[in-house]
């Protein structure tokens, strides 16, 4: 597999991480605000995150790596974002189930993604851990759906920050892989490495 193609996806992973952390911070800061604000913030996060997953799936396809789960997770993210904007007046319970479905499907996709690249990724366990966190949060949201909007907001906010942090670290590792590949090619061709 061409590690140059694999390492080019770091920016999409980093952007997903940044979006997740921002969403988490906003959810925690505006805990007492209206549910409508949370719906819009989640919608923007899910839509943009889904687009980044689709881009990552396309890059994986270019590298001839299994990309189906990433594409499914991206499509689910985009659909969840669209639902949030089309029906912003949905109830807290409906929002909870949209977030739970998105978290579970995204998590399973990330675990499958990590398992399909164990020899190529710098730390495949990190992608699997990020996916596992998503699945666990999704299941918790389904098991305790009536825990209240404030508890939901805190749970989703904390999850988003942890998830975003793992994505940012993973993006950092992918960028390091990109630098290593460039350095290797520069040394093998006798030219200085460029960043």
Structural class, by secondary structure, is: mainly alpha
How would a textbook summarize the main sheet?
Answer: none
Domain count: 1
Strand content: under 5%
Q: What is the helix fraction of residues, given as a range? A: over 70%
pLDDT under 50 segments (min length 5)? Answer: none
Annotation, overall tally of beta strands: 0
What is the average per-residue confidence, as pLDDT, rounded to a whole number?
76
**Rounded to an integer, what's the Rg over CA atoms?**
18 Å
The tally of helices reads: 7
Which of globular, elongated, flat, extended, rod-shaped describes the shape?
A: elongated
Taken in chain order, the helices and strands follow as HHHHHHH
In terms of quaternary structure, what is this?
A: single chain
Distance between the termini: 22 Å
Report what the structure shows.
This protein is an all-alpha fold. It starts with a helix and ends in a 6-residue tail after the last helix. The protein is elongated. Helix 6 packs antiparallel against helix 7. It has one domain.
């Amino acid at each position: 597999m061409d590690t140059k193609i694999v390492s080019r996806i770091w920016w999409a992973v980093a952007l997903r991480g940044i979006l997740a952390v921002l969403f988490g911070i906003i959810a925690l800061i505006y805990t007492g605000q209206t549910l409508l604000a949370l719906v819009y913030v989640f919608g923007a996060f899910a839509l943009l995150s889904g687009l980044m997953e689709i881009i990552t799936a396309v890059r994986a396809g270019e590298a001839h790596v299994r990309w189906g789960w990433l594409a499914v997770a991206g499509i689910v993210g985009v659909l969840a974002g669209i639902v949030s904007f089309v029906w912003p007046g949905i109830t807290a319970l409906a929002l909870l189930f949209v977030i739970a479905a998105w978290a579970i499907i995204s998590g399973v996709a990330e675990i499958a993604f990590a398992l399909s690249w164990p020899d190529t990724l710098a730390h495949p366990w990190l992608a699997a851990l990020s996916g596992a966190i998503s699945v666990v949060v999704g299941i918790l949201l389904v098991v305790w759906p009536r825990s209240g909007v404030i508890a939901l907001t805190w749970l989703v906010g904390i999850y988003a920050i942890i998830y975003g942090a793992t994505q940012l670290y993973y993006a950092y590792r992918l960028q390091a892989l990109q630098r290593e590949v460039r350095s290797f090619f520069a040394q093998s061709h006798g030219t200085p490495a460029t960043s």
